[in-house]
Amino acid sequence: QIKGFVFDLDGVIADTSIYHSKAWRQLAEELGVTWTTELSNNLKGVSRMDSLNLILKAGGKESAYTEEEKEHYATEKNTNYLNLLKDMDASAILPGINDFIEDLKRHDYKLSLASASKNSPLVLEQLGLAKYFEKRVDPATLKHGKPDPEIFARGAEILGLKPEECVGIEDATAGIKSINGASELSIGIGDPKILNEADINFTDTSKLTLENIKQALK
Ligand code: BG6
Ligand code: MG
To answer: What cofactor requirement does the entry state (predicted)?
Structure first.
């Protein structure tokens, strides 16, 4: 029986994944790495340093920089990302998400956040959703980022629930792998061809309702 929902943030709750992509693209081009849709999709859900490493690898530059230089570039990307976030407010919440969260609360489901982003507390504040996600996995405390199951396993643990009692919601391939690895029910938001490992798929958040989930499970 399902008792809890573990949410990704960027690209599920808010359309901030666009800003992450924009900021990464800017850095990739500065480093002379060609930006592709594939690269963009592979970066989704992946931690800051892992993302930079994926970009460098895509450009065949994995050993071109020292750790210190990489820290510098990661910080530069984050500064650009924060700049893009500056004027963001509740209007960045994706369609249907407010209603879905309200409905979950009404039915006494527990909610937690499993975002890889160190900026997630700030983003939740700006969106006005911090009060719904008091339970959060702190990505700084993880040994392994997505696609490793650790973050979604912890998302269930902090709710006092077993993984089988939880649903994980993700827009990233790496995130779906993490949910599946943690033995939770996975819901993919986005292109079903890309998120083909998800147990349930909705093309966008407006379809994410308890009713549609029940239908999909029949
Ligand atoms: C994930 C995003 O939620 O967080 C990634 O999908 C991002 O694009 C990752 O790289 C880490 O975010 P941050 O804010 O800690 O750099
Ligand atoms: Mg995401």
So the answer is: Mg(2+)
